[in-house]
């Protein structure tokens, strides 16, 4: 059952825009090589990702908006986003691909998106809202949050059909004690549930980029392959720095300048994600002074020690379960939300070509100086007569939070390069305790009657766990004790589920209205502001955040327009109006 409502033709909708929408292109989406060298906009949105697309679409209803996306368009190769191509697209790290690899200083492989739509183009598609207490703690308005969630859901989200392997996982979770059964719901509730997906019944993905269909095509422009190098600030006298524009580079190496219009409410809004947003702040001179000066960043606009701090990535540990019977290809549809703050999910029937695995590993080799003997030995061991590696079942345990935190630092001044990131997985004992409890629950699922037909009868859960110790799933050392000690197993086999966040956290880098502390006309609206990951999977809340703040800006513009009309009706000489003294400044 699809949650998507029929397209409603709005007043700003025209036949030409419909044509471009149906073919996967928008007439306002262009390569940055076609951009003017200098232009002005009411809002400049850096990053056309999960938050940026929702935000820019909403802003365009009442303002001129520029979106700068460093990657390309997901519509250039529509089948690459289909469910069947999930792994091949995620692990395709060729220079022009949508997936950019990086390795944290913890020795864990990771990727970041470089495509319009951001992580929603690469992820497993699972859609689930944040916890109620999360919304309360963030001091968001509940009615605004609800309206924004529903707006996203009406356009992108479907109810999945749960059969076969996913059904066995669901019943296995219930048998393992992850209760109660909450059926299909988008809400975050302890127990086992089915949640939404951004894949339609035919297996086609509907990413955040699709939200641009609802933008006003006359007031928005999206430039692709537009690499922002720095945010520009006015720093006159002793006044607070104020963002007034950006410098970005197109694929031909030509630099362009975009500036804010002379409007009291015009702003630069960073939506570049948990890696690029703190990185770009630093490259623009906003960050820890000593660190910026050491990397030759000049000038240092504001000494902001907390930029890049509080980086978190929810640690994930997994078990591959070979099946004696055929399994369907499925991404996450079911989740077990435990009462000890872990989330158990699963994938089935994933396929990855050996050629792509080799290319991914070569990319990893280029990213690290660590020992890669495990990777080399792995490729010697796999059956090269088969061109495809198949993973029948993949059950994962994700730790909520996490409590453990790390930091991000610059490596150089190239905004397209990966910065140095350390997440400090399992540094805090609380995270480790949750992992152990989660793995014990997975063992119960594997041993359940409900799951028995999808596991070879002679394969024990402990043997399946120990097999993970032989696979090059990360670059961390292996310890013999991990074969019988779940705590050590958690440490040795930790991987990512790509839910990293932090670096521009609320209360530390931005205020509760997402304004960068100490700077005017600059906000950060994306996952880098999170103190912890929301819900089981963050994409729902990231898109909601973009939509809800877009609505706030829209309402602010409307209110300001009414106030301006009243003032102008009382003042004969408009030149007496000092628009820069607006109460919305």
Automatic annotation (TrEMBL):
Q: Where is the Glucose-methanol-choline oxidoreductase N-terminal domain?
A: 273-287
Q: Which positions carry the signal peptide feature in this UniProt record?
A: none
What cofactor does this chain's UniProt record say it requires? FAD
Q: Give the record's keywords alphabetically.
A: FAD, Flavoprotein, Signal
InterPro entries in the record: FAD/NAD-bd_sf, GMC_Oxidoreductase-Related, GMC_OxRdtase, GMC_OxRdtase_N, GMC_OxRtase_C
Cite the PROSITE patterns for this sequence: GMC_OXRED_2
The family assignment reads: Belongs to the GMC oxidoreductase family.
- Please identify the protein, giving its name as recorded: Glucose-methanol-choline oxidoreductase N-terminal domain-containing protein
**Organism field:** Brassica rapa subsp. trilocularis
């Amino acid at each position: 059952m699809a949650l998507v409502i029929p397209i409603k033709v709005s007043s700003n909708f025209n036949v030409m825009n419909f044509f471009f929408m149906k073919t996967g292109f928008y007439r306002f989406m262009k390569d940055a090589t076609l951009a003017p060298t200098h232009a002005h906009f009411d809002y400049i949105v850096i990053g056309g990702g999960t938050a940026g697309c929702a935000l820019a679409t909403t802003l365009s209803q009442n303002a001129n908006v520029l979106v700068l996306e460093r990657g390309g368009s997901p519509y250039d190769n529509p089948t690459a986003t289909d469910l069947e191509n999930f792994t091949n697209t995620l692990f395709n790290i060729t220079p022009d691909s949508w997936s950019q690899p990086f390795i944290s200083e913890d020795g864990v492989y990771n990727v970041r998106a470089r495509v319009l739509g951001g992580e929603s183009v690469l992820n497993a598609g699972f859609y689930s809202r944040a916890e109620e207490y999360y919304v309360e703690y963030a001091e968001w308005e509940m009615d605004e949050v609800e309206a924004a969630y529903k707006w996203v859901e009406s356009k992108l989200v479907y109810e999945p059909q749960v059969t076969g392997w996913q059904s066995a996982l669901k019943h296995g979770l219930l048998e393992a004690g992850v209760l109660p059964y909450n059926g299909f719901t988008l809400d975050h509730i302890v127990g086992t549930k089915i949640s939404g997906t951004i894949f339609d019944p035919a297996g086609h993905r509907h990413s955040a980029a699709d939200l641009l269909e609802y933008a006003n095509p006359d007031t928005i422009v999206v430039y692709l392959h537009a690499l922002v190098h720095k945010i520009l600030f006015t720093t006159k006298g002793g006044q607070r720095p104020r963002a007034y524009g950006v410098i970005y580079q197109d694929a031909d190496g030509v630099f362009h300048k975009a500036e804010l219009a002379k409007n009291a409410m015009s702003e630069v809004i960073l939506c570049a994600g948990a890696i690029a947003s703190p990185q770009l702040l630093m490259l623009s001179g906003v960050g820890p002074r000593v660190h910026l000066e050491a990397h030759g960043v000049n000038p240092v606009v504001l000494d902001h020690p907390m930029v890049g701090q509080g980086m978190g990535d929810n640690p994930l540990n997994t078990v591959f379960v070979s099946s004696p019977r055929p399994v369907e290809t499925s991404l996450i549809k079911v989740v077990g939300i435990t009462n000890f703050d872990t989330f158990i999910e699963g994938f089935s029937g994933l396929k990855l070509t050996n050629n792509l695995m080799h290319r991914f590993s070569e990319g990893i080799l280029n990213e690290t100086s660590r020992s890669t003997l495990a990777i080399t030995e792995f490729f010697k061991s796999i059956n090269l007569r088969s061109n495809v590696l198949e993973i029948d079942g993949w059950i994962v345990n994700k730790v909520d939070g996490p409590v453990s935190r790390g930091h991000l630092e610059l490596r150089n001044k190239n905004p397209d390069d990966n910065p140095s990131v350390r997440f400090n997985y399992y540094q805090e004992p609380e995270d480790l305790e949750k992992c152990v409890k989660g793995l014990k629950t997975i063992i119960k699922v594997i041993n359940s009657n409900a799951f028995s037909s999808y596991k070879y009868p002679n394969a024990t859960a402990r043997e399946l766990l120990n097999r993970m110790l032989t696979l090059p799933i990360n670059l961390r050392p292996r310890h013999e004790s991990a074969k019988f000690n779940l705590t050590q197993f958690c440490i040795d086999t930790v991987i990512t589920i790509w839910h990293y966040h932090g670096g521009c956290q609320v209360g530390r880098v931005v205020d509760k209205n997402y304004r960068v502390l100490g700077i005017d006309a600059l906000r950060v609206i994306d996952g880098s502001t999170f103190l912890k990951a929301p819900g089981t999977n963050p994409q729902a809340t990231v898109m909601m955040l973009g939509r809800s703040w877009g609505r706030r800006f829209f309402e602010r513009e409307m209110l300001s327009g009414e106030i301006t009309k009243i003032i102008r009706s009382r003042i004969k000489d408009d030149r007496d109006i000092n628009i820069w003294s607006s109460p919305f400044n």
